Amino acid sequence: MENKTVGSAAVAAQPSASAREPELASRALARIQKCIEKAEDQRHRISASGALTNEQEAEIRDSFNIQIKAEIAKILAPLHPADIAYILEALPTDDRLLVWDLVRNNQDGDVLVEVNDGVRETLIDAMDREELVDAMETLDTDEIADLVEDLPPDVVAEVQEGLTTKERAQLRAAMSYPEETVGARMDFEFVSVREEWSLETVFRYLRGFEELPELTDMVFVVDRNQKLKGALPVSKIVISDPERSVRELMKSDVLTLNPLDEATDAAQAFERYDLVSAPVVDETGRLVGRLTVDEVMDVIRESSDEDAYAAVGLSDEQDLFGSVWEAAKSRWIWLGVNLCTAFVASRVISCFEGTISRVVALAALLPIAANIAGNTGNQTLTLLVRSIAMGQVTDSNTIDLFKKELCVAIINGLMWGAVAGLGAWLLYYDSAFGMKLGLVMFLAMMLNIIVGALVGLIVPLTLKKLDKDPAMGSSVLLTFITDSGGFLIFLGLAGLFF
């Protein structure tokens, strides 16, 4: 009726939550780095002494390295796989591989699941075929599915051979769903009961498990065909009369997810309704899995990372200490775009060389007008990208959003334009054109703030219409438009007045 097989080996390797502290990983990282530094210092001292033979140096160095490795292994032993992943991501490649060799074998698979794609690639490359197969055997099928794309085909084939028929079917199902869907994230371990059962029967049934699947806050109620009828909170089983039936106490209005639903949409539902888990049903209403809050937190974190990197044209899958050449190449596109936009902005300024030469003060005030447009645009852009990610921006409310942001920009433009205009007049009040400079500054600031807000709206909405990530390169495009537009507006007004 359900999957009772829980990854006991992986669970047993992890310390209890009460033994962990939020700062444990960072403190462990500092201690490991200190160990590595001690090994480096010892190596340099031995080499600098010159009093020992090569054999003596090697013997002392090997003995010291054994001590250091034992110390690092002791630091790693109590750590959760997520903490080890954090440490590995923060170490340069050579140090990372040294530490990776000291990770306990029954944690290899869990750590591979936790690290980012770039680091995972280096760790897998450092493992032989047998090590990879052993690491996969400690994982559940949904976790294996997360790693399949990074594994050599022969390893995948051997891992599949070691699975039961049911587990192979689950693995194929998980691999069949697109990466960003609920199906690719769902857990196949769940508990289901029948609505005609009494609570006493349910309680006896649950006691038959060696351990319940993690984050089991409810058991799912299904019929003979595994179609979902509702859910029964575990708390109800504990506190209610054992003679009462599941049908009496179950909740029938449970939020259900489809395997093809977007994972980010599911994450929003979890946040909105404060869920711990939710059933996943197929098109026929059959229960096929569940989504849990730990996976949802991963979705939220990954989405946040993607947006932050995409805004400046980077990939979130990069290894902090990866190949210098690959890192350089990954930044070429948007650096090239930036260079082109900078040339465009410089050409805008050069068109007004005559005006600037007559009123040199314009050169000093020029950056102010452009920067305020960029800041305004970034505020609007950040608000809109987040709202789009949360699904709050739709075709029906886009016009209202434009109106609201335009009104905000006009109010801010009038207020801060007046402040900037007054400041420019005070700075140059004793010159022949102090009053004109103040007026130009006021108008330029007001218009630039309005333009910045409009660009902050138009750029992500346009990307969304083109089915692109609204955050992708949006910061670069915003900077280009607001800089060039800001220069053009400020110097154009100056040309009219002077």
From TrEMBL:
Top-rank taxon: Bacteria
Pfam families in UniProt: CBS, MgtE, MgtE_N
PROSITE patterns documented for this protein: CBS (PS51371)
Keyword Cell membrane: yes
Stretches assigned to the CBS domain: 250-306
Subcellular location: Cell membrane; Membrane
Topology with respect to the bilayer: Multi-pass membrane protein
Principal location: membrane
SMART domains named in the record: CBS, MgtE_N
Keywords associated with the record: CBS domain, Cell membrane, Magnesium, Membrane, Metal-binding, Transmembrane, Transmembrane helix, Transport
UniProt xrefs under InterPro entries: CBS_dom, CBS_dom_sf, Mg_transptr_MgtE_intracell_dom, MgtE_N_sf, MgtE_transporter, SLC41_membr_dom, SLC41_membr_dom_sf
Transmembrane domains' residue ranges: 406-428, 440-463, 475-497
Keyword Cell membrane: yes
Subunit structure: Homodimer.
Function text: Acts as a magnesium transporter.
Similarity comment: family membership: Belongs to the SLC41A transporter family.
Name used for this protein in its record: Magnesium transporter MgtE
Name of the gene encoding the protein in the UniProt record: mgtE
